[in-house]
Write a structure and sequence with these properties.
By secondary structure, this protein is mostly beta strands. The protein has no helices and ten strands.
Length: about 100
Amino acid sequence: MNATPSIAFDPSPATVATGGTVTFAFGSVAHNVFFDAGSGVPADIPGTNANASATRTFPTAGTFTYNCHIHPGMAGTIRVSAGPTTTTTGDGSGY
């Protein structure tokens, strides 16, 4: 999951299987990730994260929405489906 120059998360929505992981790649501009409350939601990524990445695992099927508290309107969705574990990783070229 990359934070892009247009202040968006890409790809969104992202899809992984139950138990899969998503790596959030933050470029040179600081971002954070706060998930909407719900069952099976992974831990938030608080702070001001720049030139860093953080990985979260999704053990429960469902749709998980999140946003960046630094940039209003910057939001994304992760869809977790039952099935084999997969991993979605950004290429590190985030904003």
